[in-house]
Amino acid sequence: MLSYQHAYHAGGPADLHKHIVLAELLARLTAKPRGISYAETHAGRALYDLAAPEALKTGEAAQGIARLAPDPATPFGRALAATRTQHGPTAYPGSPLIARTLLRPQDRLTLMELHPAEHAALAKALPGAAIHRRDGYEGLLALAPLAPRRGLVLVDPSYEMKGEYAAAAGFARRLLAKWPEAAILLWYPLLPEARHRALLAALAPLALFVDEVAFAPRPSRGMTGSGLALLNAPWGAAAAFAAAHAQAAPVLVPKTR
To answer: Is 227 within the bounds of a domain?
Structure first.
């Protein structure tokens, strides 16, 4: 949706789940010299100010990153520290900036963002990156397979519309058919309506690793947790999720499925 602005949600519990897992996966994928491709379908603006009115209005960052002290020795802690060294103590890196920090010269970064204001901010935050102002699903399907062939794709829509669950699942299936070497990390919210169950059912025939966490304390309404579905999981994926759980323990409680 073109109305969606992630600045209201930056640094919240859902971001921590997504971003710490992402950082751990990227660290494992870049452990060997061979280059990788990293891509996103809904990149956002990459850099957020947690003191901005949008972040203060929802208070999500206060329930998320403000309750943690990430270790700079961890991949996520390294990205956060680098961001705050450059942009100040209230800066927070979105997933594109986390990736830019952790990727190496031999790796490729490809970002899709359709929203005009978000796209402009993304281009300003990451000069020189391959940034496309187009629908993320259409754009990545047109470009796939990327080179290097080994890679990771983050699928992170807003889910403001019910149809986005089916669209995300359909995209993941089509992308893997075109780019079988890619791992796909797909985020989804845990809401009382449990619409994510249809998404997981559509993905079930594929090789799937699912991780769900509840927010602590539990919100009285709205999103109560966060889910990640990893398709075509790379080596070390289980350890990446376990590391993320340990780092975010004060905020996120792993759920059993």
So the answer is: yes
Tokens of 90: 């209230």
What are the structure tokens assigned to 238, written together?
């289980």
Phi, psi of 209, deg, nearest 5: -115, 120
Question: Which residues belong to the active site?
Answer: 156
Global pTM reads 0.95
* Domain span holding position 130: 6-254
Is the CB of residue 110 less than 8 Å from the CB of residue 147?
Answer: no
| Token pair listed for 98 | 């986390």
**Contact (Cβ atoms closer than 8 angstroms) between residue 45 and residue 121:** yes
In angstroms, the CA 252 to CA 138 distance is 33
Q: What is the CATH number of the domain that holds 32?
A: 3.40.50.150
10-residue mean pLDDT series, the chain (257 residues): 67 96 98 97 96 89 94 98 98 98 98 95 95 97 98 95 94 97 97 93 92 91 93 94 96 86
Contacts of 233 (CB under 8 A, 6+ apart): 183, 207, 209
Q: Which two tokens stand for residue 124?
A: 């300003």
Query: Considering its fold, how many domains does the chain have in total?
Result: 1
